[in-house]
């Protein structure tokens, strides 16, 4: 999603090919990707004979194509934005690590536990400080790659009823992120995809979906979104 948003914001005209990485088809499909991308992973962007095979690299490419306008102009602000992007790319130091992005699309969701909410407090406190400095509406004033990088986190935490109002400025910011034209476009398509159930996502036993429910029950190390 992050790479897709960056390319859209940069005005890059690209053809999109969706790769189904659910089992058992994931093995053949990723092997086919490996024929031209050394990592054999998605996302991957092919431009003529050049292959960019990491979402972070694709975002940086999109920024270069856009003349640098997807990152702040000030060198220190730009470095801080890149820090946020790298933090998200590295897993946000384990913040809400048990709440996978795929779970944002489950029809039934569990509550965030106190430990997860406490982990989110570190993120919310930092974002509030960024917004206080910039004045909003986005982390560095204008929408940047930093906001796009955090978009999947905003979606999954918001859909798990995280109270953004606990951190000043983050509630309107999260609203601006979700209302972004390209984010809404991506979600319209993603919400139509059948969700992949992760065994690690534990609902209350009394609410666990039955065999007759609409879940796609598979064991997956990574989702399709």
UniProtKB/TrEMBL annotation:
It comes from Lysobacter auxotrophicus. This is Glutathione S-transferase family protein. PANTHER family: MALEYLACETOACETATE ISOMERASE. Residues 1-70 form the GST N-terminal domain. Transmembrane segments: none annotated. Residues 74-196 form the GST C-terminal domain. Gene3D superfamilies: 1.20.1050.10, Glutaredoxin (3.40.30.10).
């Amino acid at each position: 999603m992050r790479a897709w948003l960056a390319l859209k914001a940069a005005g890059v005209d690209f053809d999109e090919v969706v790769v189904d990485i659910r089992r058992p088809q994931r093995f053949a499909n990723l092997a086919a990707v490996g024929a031209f991308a050394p990592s054999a992973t998605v996302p991957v962007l092919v431009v003529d004979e050049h292959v960019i095979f990491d979402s972070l690299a694709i975002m940086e490419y999109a920024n270069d194509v856009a003349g640098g306008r997807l990152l702040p102009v000030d060198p220190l602000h730009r470095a801080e934005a890149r820090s946020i992007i790298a933090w998200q790319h590295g897993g946000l130091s384990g913040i809400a690590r048990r709440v996978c992005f795929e779970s944002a699309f489950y029809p039934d969701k569990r509550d965030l536990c106190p430990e997860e909410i406490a982990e989110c407090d570190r993120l919310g406190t930092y974002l509030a400080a960024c917004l206080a400095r910039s004045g909003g509406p986005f982390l560095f004033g204008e929408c940047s790659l930093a906001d796009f990088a955090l978009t999947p986190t905003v979606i999954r935490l918001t859909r798990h009823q995280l109270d953004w109002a606990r951190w000043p400025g983050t509630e309107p910011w999260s609203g601006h992120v979700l209302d972004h034209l390209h984010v809404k476009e991506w979600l319209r398509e993603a919400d139509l995809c059948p969700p992949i159930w992760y065994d690690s996502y534990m609902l209350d036993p009394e609410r666990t979906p039955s065999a007759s429910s609409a879940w796609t029950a598979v064991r997956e190390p990574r989702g399709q979104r």
